[in-house]
Amino acid sequence: MAKKVDKKFHYEKKMSKRKGKGVRWLVIERPTGSIIAESIFEDKAQAVVDFQNKHKQWAPQGGVVKHLTLGTI
Question: Can you give the residue ranges of every domain in the chain?
Fold first, then answer.
């Protein structure tokens, strides 16, 4: 039997400007606020967002596990 996918999980990209690092695009999991990827290029971040929103592979576990994330917003 397939696992139930939680519909409230979605992923978005957000631009981040940091001193010394320039512009970065963050892929953020909502509603947990976990940062799951960081990229210099917007199109690469958008590809991750599109893939995660299509497959939602982490939704049955309640989101990406903490040791695989880059932190939280």
Answer: 10-68
